[in-house]
Design goal:
Strand order of the largest sheet: 1-2
Structural class: mainly alpha
Number of strands: 2
Radius of gyration: 26 Å
Helix content: 55-70%
Shape: elongated
Distance between the termini: 12 Å
C-alpha cells in the first residue's frame, strides 16, 4: 500500500504541478500588466499637468530638430545616408525545455521528501541553476520566470509530498 501512495504522490507532484505553475505565471503576467498600465496612466497624468508639455511644432520643419540654427533629422528618424537597420525578432523561446525540467524537478523534490532526504533538494536546485546560469545571466525576463517557476514547482511538490507523508505514510 505504501508503494501505491508514493506512486500517487509522484504522479500528482510531477504532472499536476504543470497547470499550477502555468496558473502562477498567468497571475504574475496579469499583475505585471496592471502595474504597467498604472505606470502609463501616471505618466500620462504628469504629462497633462506639466506646463512645459504644451509645446507644439508645426510648419514645414515639423519632426526636425534645430541645433545652433541648423536643421537636423528628427531624433528617432535615421539620417538620409544611413539605412534603418532593425534587429531581427528573436526566434528562440526563453528557457527551452522548462516543462520537462519542471516535471523532473517536482519528481525529485517529492521523492526527496518522501524518502526523508530533504538535502537532495539543494542538489536539485544547484543543478538546475548551474544548467541555466548563462541564459539567466543574459536575460532578466528569463531569470524572473526561472525564479517564479522554480518556487511554484518546489512548493507544489513539497506540499504534495508532505500531505501524502502525513496522511497516508505515517
Amino acid at each position: 500500500m505504501t508503494a501505491l501512495w508514493i506512486t500517487a504522490a509522484l504522479l500528482v507532484a510531477g504532472f499536476a504541478g504543470w497547470p499550477v505553475t502555468a496558473l502562477v505565471f498567468r497571475l504574475a503576467r496579469t499583475i505585471d500588466d496592471k502595474a504597467d498600465a498604472a505606470k502609463a496612466a501616471e505618466e500620462a497624468r504628469r504629462a497633462a499637468e506639466d506646463p512645459a508639455a504644451d509645446v507644439t511644432v508645426d510648419g514645414p520643419h515639423a519632426g526636425t530638430q534645430t541645433v545652433d540654427g541648423e536643421l537636423t533629422a528628427a531624433a528617432d528618424a535615421p539620417s538620409s545616408g544611413a539605412s534603418a537597420v532593425t534587429a531581427p525578432a528573436p526566434s528562440q523561446r526563453i528557457l527551452r525545455g522548462g516543462a520537462i525540467i519542471g516535471v523532473l524537478e517536482r519528481l525529485g523534490v517529492c521523492l526527496a521528501i518522501l524518502t526523508g532526504q530533504p538535502v537532495a533538494i539543494a542538489y536539485i536546485v544547484a543543478i538546475k541553476g548551474l544548467g541555466r546560469f548563462a541564459e539567466l545571466k543574459e536575460t532578466p525576463v528569463a531569470a524572473e520566470r526561472f525564479i517564479i517557476g522554480t518556487l511554484t514547482s518546489m512548493l507544489w511538490a513539497a506540499g504534495t509530498a508532505a500531505v501524502v507523508k502525513v496522511l497516508f505514510l505515517s
